[in-house]
Design a protein that fits this description.
Elements: E1 7-10, H1 14-25, E2 30-33, H2 38-41, E3 50-54, H3 55-63, H4 67-70, E4 75-77, E5 79-83, E6 99-103, H5 108-111, E7 117-121, H6 122-135, E8 139-141, E9 146-151, E10 156-160, E11 165-168, E12 170-173, H7 180-184, E13 189-205, E14 212-218, E15 221-228, E16 232-240, H8 241-249, H9 252-263, E17 270-272, E18 277-286, E19 290-291, E20 294-296, E21 302-303, H10 311-331, H11 339-367, H12 372-387, H13 389-399
Parallel strand pairs: 1-2, 1-12, 2-8, 5-14, 12-20
Antiparallel strand pairs: 3-7, 4-7, 5-6, 9-10, 10-11, 13-16, 13-17, 13-18, 14-15, 15-16, 18-21, 19-20
Helix pairs in contact: 1-6, 1-10, 10-11
This protein binds flavin-adenine dinucleotide.
């Protein structure tokens, strides 16, 4: 039987495009499909987020040849300072009684000088991925939407909105939380909505951030100040959905006044640099990661709260694991869509991911809560971890995505 591709990837977001690139570099033929063309994904109004990319996840992009395009825009995170405080403090050096400091230099022996992670604006990441996908000669069908998938014993048949059909031994659903591939495969989801939205804004800072990422647990919820290149920062905080919408619609002066109240005089103050974005937050886990000739990837398999900055990192780890599973299967002459091959991918990533998703959920509850006893308990917990070197180093490796059974790409090795 002849196929249109080795793997059809529905969704050319950051997870899907990374998978496509990994497969193509290893000699397989992927096809990417997305209703939004790469050019449209690069518009400043499309996605105002910046993502904290764990140092292990960034290694994958380095191996795929993306470092040159990404590094000028990637801000190294040298320190992470977590503070349980009523207001962001003016001085990073005096964070109050309950804080936790992670410093890249403490694990430098194991990471060869890598930072704790990188802050990268999503549009920069998309732009680098788009360039690399094009240079690798990967076929991209966009704008085009996957409408349904039918599976026979030997092939998956993907139907697009324009009426065209494509066949491959395997289809990957990487189309985010609303995955059509997941739905047509009959895979349900579990999870719940948080009564919150994430508010995201980019600001210019008066003083240098020195590569320090701050997470403040304010009485009203977590507030992150994440360093970007050119003395800017990405602010992410949670608000009730109604309040977040009101902020998004607010006049710039009103938004700015609110921001100043939240931000205080931290780093000399901040001036808004671009539009304000809001994202409704929820937890959504697929009940299964695979079905006959189908695998799920990224947010299609697992959508988590951004409090720990792990959503995309999980998707990138999944992309590395799936690419390795498929490439190794190809070398052994196995059918990439067979149950045995897909079970290896699901075993590798699903349990680990569910564990991280549920601990993130517990974290949201613990840190969005102003109960004085809980505040005291979490403050003491943070202070204790801060005093214990091995605990600090464990959390840094964990946040850096460098624990567990690491796919080769996350070890910095080619497939
Ligand atoms: C406020 C906020 C801050 C965050 N910060 C971080 C962070 O610091 N670090 C981190 O790791 N994660 C972070 N995340 C999570 C991260 O943004 C997501 O996990 C990530 O974007 C998911 O990528 P994806 O490629 O799986 O899915 P998506 O980005 O949702 O991409 C899906 C793609 O599929 C396409 N598509 C949709 N329908 C179809 C269809 N029918 N056919 C074909 N294609 C289709 C879409 O157009 C899109 O291009 C944050 C999330 C939020 C909300």
């Amino acid at each position: 039987m002849t196929f249109d591709a080795d793997v059809i990837i529905a969704g050319a977001g950051m997870a899907g495009a990374t998978l496509g690139l990994s497969l193509a570099k290893a000699g397989l033929k992927p096809v990417l499909i997305d209703p939004v063309g790469f050019e449209a994904q690069l518009a400043p109004t499309f996605d105002g987020r910046a993502s904290a990319i764990a140092f292990a996840a960034f290694r994958q992009w380095r191996v795929l040849g993306l470092a040159e395009a990404m590094e000028p825009h990637a801000q190294r995170i040298e320190q992470i300072l977590v503070t349980d405080a009523p207001k962001p403090s003016a001085s990073a050096g005096a964070p109050g009684p309950f804080f936790l400091r992670f410093d890249a230099s403490e694990i430098a022996g194991r990471t060869e000088g890598e930072p704790l992670g990188y802050m990268l604006e999503n549009r920069r990441t998309r732009s680098a991925l788009a360039g690399a996908v094009q240079a690798a000669g990967i076929e991209v069908l966009a704008p085009a939407r996957v409408e349904s998938v039918e599976v026979t014993s030997r092939a998956a048949v993907v139907r697009l909105d324009e009426g065209r059909t494509l066949t491959a031994p395997l289809v990957v659903g990487a189309e985010g939380r609303g995955s059509v591939v997941r739905r047509t495969a009959g895979i349900g989801t579990v999870g719940w909505d948080y009564p919150q939205s994430g508010v995201v804004a980019t600001v210019r800072l008066e003083r240098d951030h020195e590569g320090v990422a701050h997470e403040f647990f304010l009485p009203s919820g977590p507030f992150a100040i994440l360093p970007l290149t050119e003395q800017r920062a990405s602010l992410v905080w949670t608000e009730s959905r109604a309040r977040a919408e009101a902020l998004k619609q607010a006049r710039p002066e009103a938004f700015h006044a609110h921001l100043q109240r939240r931000f205080g005089d931290h780093l000399g103050g901040a001036v808004l640099d671009g539009p304000v974005f809001t994202y409704p937050l929820s937890l959504q886990l697929a009940e299964r990661w695979t079905a006959p000739r189908i695998a799920l990837l990224g947010d299609a398999a697992h959508g988590v709260h951004p409090i720990a900055g792990q959503g995309l990192n999980l998707g990138l780890k999944g992309a590395a694991a799936l690419a390795q599973t498929l490439v190794e299967a190809g070398r052994l002459g196995e059918d990439p869509g067979s149950e045995a091959v897909l079970a290896r991918y699901a075993r590798w990533r699903s349990v680990d991911t569910a564990g991280l998703a549920l601990s993130t959920d517990a974290f949201v509850w613990l840190f969005s809560n102003d109960n004085p006893l809980l505040r005291l308990g979490r403050g003491l917990g943070m202070a204790a971890v801060n005093r214990i070197g091995p605990a600090r180093r464990f959390f840094m490796q964990e946040a850096g995505g460098a624990t567990g059974d690491l796919p080769r790409l996350l070890q910095g090795l080619p497939l």
